[in-house]
């Protein structure tokens, strides 16, 4: 019999995962930057080019891109990397403009050959590096100087960073860095001493870096250093055509382009303001114009018209440029999340029976209420359901007062306690002095969250239009085709009234519940969820538990609209965490949807619905294990197929008649919390 020896585990170097430090790192970055910054893995950089700046990441307007994990035991390493990326903004590296550089730097101007075919969608850094025979080498040399400048700035501005920076560099020096002049310069910058074997080019470069660390104040100083040292470095490498490496667009270039778009948008606002002012000016006409302008009146009018036309043309051209560039930047860097905050959650992989660590990212953001001033229909819904809701709430409304017995002070004698006291006296024992009773107010301690599905399918009508019956159609033989066409324009069809949609019912259900819970006094939050892909699960705030029920709340509910996919698991986990933070004695989570969980990357096979169902079931179980009362409601009549796998029978409901959703939701809540 052969004995199988167990495999020995290979020694792995210790690593720190971004997911382990992300929450603390976000707070740290917010404290430094003065605003919230998302923390994302550089693996989420969609364009996936070579990452510049030591290949550790970069920062767009609201995001820090950092490595998914780092081979180190120093927890402060991520703080150092975050600070280096914040330094990109503080040092205005991303504000570089080629036109300014050519104007300021004669050494660059003589290399620069304008390309009329380049167009505005070429980044300024691409234009800069294309001035050199080896663009990739030019980029590496520029970054060597620019990183030196940023590091010096950070050490001056944040002295406490120095010890962490030294530790980080000491760790890097223990790792393998490819040989080469620029890599040697990087090692020297991080503290490696000069060697006797270092040649003239190395020493000249090191001397320039030392001076740059002290004297450089703008990104254009780094560009100037690039121009002055490029030829010597190129000669040192003895590069043949294409021998260094292929140049590609780096993350820094995309970030530079993003900031340029922001500047274009500011220009667009200025043009719109000028246009508004010009169009608001009153131009005299007729005799009045002649009295004011004399013979020049017509000319002045024409001049004003020409100026307005030029402004409109400039506005339209710039708007097209902004739209195209914004789209390209969003494709590379991801969608800008504005005021959103981001959170990462595990996801259950039922195929491998394991959790995928920090797999999904939830962006929590307020609903955009622009143009949602018409809330009269929602107020009408509240009035329509008011009496029904009040009758249901009477079943769980606290009586207000509860009699507490056997107290030392009260408003009434407790008869049983008095009898026991007299018995103690007769027995020669000291009686209990707690012989009174009093009434105390009873307080409900309930917090609830309502998760509303905002997937694209909620845009479907409640009652789809019936197909037209053409079986009894008889053509009028008196009408020729020519006559039919001739009379076509005279026919006016009755416009169809827009049918009610699923999203309309969801909004109505939420305002009914909000009004009910305001009367009851329970704490509650209302959120919509949607998104697209594991990296972009969106949770929209209609009402936070601490918010009052106001006109603003109604506008946010009115702003609920169909959006993307239905990735339920992360939304449920996020809502669970919010409920746990309330500290209420009873916590309730209700999910309202119109179909099964689905998303573009829910599982390895897009069409596999089981993956989403299993993850959602797991998320609901996690919530229940934490003491949360969960309930799922759907208007999908085929919902039994998947809900029975996600929830116990008593924890879900199929709404057979969609119009019953508001009233059924109130009944379910009454049953859950009226125990």
Mean pLDDT: 79
How many β-strand runs? Answer: 16
The proportion of residues forming helix, as a percent range, comes to 40-55%
Q: The CATH topology of the largest domain is what?
A: Rossmann fold
Q: How many distinct domains?
A: 5
CATH superfamily of the largest domain: von Willebrand factor, type A domain
Poorly predicted tracts of residues:
1-11, 45-60, 475-497
The end-to-end span amounts to 64 Å
- What CATH first level of the largest domain would be assigned? Alpha Beta
Outline of the structure:
This protein is α/β, with parallel strands linked by helices.
Structural notes for this entry:
- The chain folds into five domains: 9-90, no CATH class; 97-247, no CATH class; 263-336; 346-389 and 500-673, von Willebrand factor, type A domain (Rossmann fold); 401-441, no CATH class.
- The protein is built from 22 helices and 16 strands.
- It has helices at 18-33, 77-90, 98-104, 106-109, 124-129, 135-157, 161-174, 181-189, 200-215, 219-237, 251-280, 286-293, 297-333, 376-393, 415-426, 481-486, 502-520, 551-558, 568-580, 609-625, 640-646, 661-673; strands spanning 16-17, 38-41, 58-59, 63-66, 69-70, 341-349, 354-366, 401-407, 412-413, 436-441, 446-453, 523-531, 537-543, 586-593, 628-634, 652-654.
- An eight-stranded mixed beta sheet has the order 6-7-13-12-11-14-15-16, sandwiched between helices. A three-stranded mixed beta sheet has the order 2-4-3. The chain has a three-stranded antiparallel beta sheet with strand order 8-10-9.
- A hairpin with a 4-residue loop joins strand 6 and strand 7.
- Helix 6 (135-157) crosses helix 9 (200-215).
- The longest helix has 37 residues, at 297-333.
């Amino acid at each position: 019999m052969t004995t199988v020896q167990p495999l020995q585990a290979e020694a792995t170097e210790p690593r720190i995962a971004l997911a382990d430090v992300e929450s603390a790192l976000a707070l740290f970055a917010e404290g430094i930057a003065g605003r919230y910054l998302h923390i994302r893995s550089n693996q989420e950089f969609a364009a996936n080019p070579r990452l510049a700046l030591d290949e550790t990441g970069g920062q767009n307007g609201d995001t820090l891109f950092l490595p998914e994990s780092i081979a180190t035991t120093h927890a402060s390493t991520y703080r150092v990397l975050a600070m280096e990326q914040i330094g990109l903004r503080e040092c205005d590296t991303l504000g570089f403009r080629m036109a300014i550089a050519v104007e300021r730097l004669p050494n660059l101007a003589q290399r620069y050959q304008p390309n009329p075919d380049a167009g505005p969608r070429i980044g300024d850094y691409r234009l800069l590096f294309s001035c050199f025979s080896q663009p990739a080498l030019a980029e590496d040399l520029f970054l060597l100087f620019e990183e030196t400048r940023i590091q010096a700035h950070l050490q001056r501005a944040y002295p406490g960073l120095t010890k962490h920076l030294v530790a980080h560099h000491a760790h890097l020096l223990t790792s393998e860095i490819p040989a080469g002049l620029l890599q040697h310069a990087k090692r020297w910058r991080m503290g490696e001493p000069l060697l006797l074997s270092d040649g003239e080019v190395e020493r000249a470069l090191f001397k320039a870096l030392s001076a740059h660390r002290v004297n450089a104040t703008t990104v254009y100083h780094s560009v100037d250093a690039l121009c002055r040292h490029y030829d010597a470095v190129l000669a040192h490498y003895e590069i043949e055509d294409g021998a260094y490496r292929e140049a590609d667009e780096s993350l820094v270039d995309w970030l530079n382009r993003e900031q340029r778009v922001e500047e274009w948008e500011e220009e667009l606002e200025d043009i719109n303001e000028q246009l508004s002012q010009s169009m608001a000016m009153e131009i005299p006409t007729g005799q009045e114009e002649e009295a004011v302008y004399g013979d020049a009146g017509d000319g002045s009018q024409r001049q004003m018209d020409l100026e307005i036309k030029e402004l409109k043309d400039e506005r339209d051209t710039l708007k097209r440029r902004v739209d195209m560039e914004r789209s390209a930047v969003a494709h590379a860097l991801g969608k800008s999340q504005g005021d959103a905050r981001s959170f990462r959650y595990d996801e259950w992989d039922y195929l491998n029976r394991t959790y995928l660590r920090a797999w999904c990212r939830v962006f929590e953001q307020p609903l955009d209420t622009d143009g949602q001033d018409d809330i009269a229909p929602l107020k009408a819904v509240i009035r329509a359901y008011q009496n029904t809701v009040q009758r249901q709430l009477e079943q769980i409304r606290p009586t207000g007062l509860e009699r507490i017995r056997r107290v030392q002070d009260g408003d009434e004698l407790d008869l049983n306690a008095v009898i026991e006291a007299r018995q103690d006296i007769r027995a020669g024992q000291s009686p209990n002095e707690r012989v009174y009773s009093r009434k105390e107010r009873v307080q409900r301690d309930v917090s609830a969250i309502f998760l509303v599905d905002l997937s694209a399918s909620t845009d479907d009508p409640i009652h789809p239009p019936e197909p037209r019956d053409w079986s009894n159609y008889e053509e009028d033989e008196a009408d020729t085709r020519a006559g039919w066409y001739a009379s076509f324009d005279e026919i006016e069809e009755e416009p169809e009234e827009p049918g009610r949609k699923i999203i309309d019912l969801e909004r109505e259900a939420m305002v009914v519940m909000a009004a009910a819970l305001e009367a009851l006094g329970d704490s509650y939050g209302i959120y919509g969820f949607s998104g697209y892909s594991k990296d972009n699960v969106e949770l929209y705030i209609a009402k936070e538990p601490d918010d009052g029920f106001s006109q603003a709340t109604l506008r946010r509910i009115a702003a609920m609209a169909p959006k993307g996919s239905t990735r339920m698991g992360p939304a449920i986990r996020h809502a669970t965490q919010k409920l746990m933070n309330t500290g209420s004695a009873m916590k309730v989570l209700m999910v309202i949807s119109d179909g099964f969980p689905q998303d573009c990357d829910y599982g390895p096979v897009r069409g596999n619905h089981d993956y989403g169902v299993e993850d959602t079931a797991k998320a609901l179980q996690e919530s229940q294990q934490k003491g949360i009362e969960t309930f799922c409601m759907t208007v999908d009549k085929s919902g039994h197929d998947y809900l029975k796998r996600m929830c116990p029978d008593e924890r879900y409901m199929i709404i057979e008649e969609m119009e019953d959703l508001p009233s059924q939701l109130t009944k379910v809540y009454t049953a859950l919390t009226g125990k």
